[in-house]
Target: CD7 protein
Amino acid sequence: LLRTHVQPGPVLYVSHLNESRPSPAFANRVEHSREGQRVVVTLRELQEEDSDNYVCAEEVKGSPLLSASGTMVLVQGGGQAHAQGCEKCSWDLYALAIVVALLLCALVCCILYRVDVKKYFQKKKPNVVYEDMSYSSRRNTLVR
Model:
């Protein structure tokens, strides 16, 4: 594993016998494991000065090292303090969401209180005209 841009140089050398030689800057912060033909390299406790382009390269006997595309690693902030800050931000976000939900419920309750909701759900009375057809009312109309 090589650093190629900011501070060029080797980070970790792993032989075909699985012997490793880390650079002094990464002595206690780098580890590797082999899974068949694949080597997994893990960098721990990253610091801002570890930001660089990292390239995995294979040494081929009798051939110069070819350039390869790598992985850009950008380290920002301080590990533990930053994680606590993110945790606080997520709680702030949850609290804000709860307050907004409560205000929205209060607004809906106020609107429903102001509007007479019962009249929208009651059955409307049909338009009925009632006419008195008793004998006394019929007699009055006959006389006229």
User: Anything to note?
Assistant: The longest helix spans residues 79-114. Residues 87-120 form one domain. Confidence is low (pLDDT under 50) at residues 79-85. The CA atoms of residues 51 and 74 lie 5 Å apart.
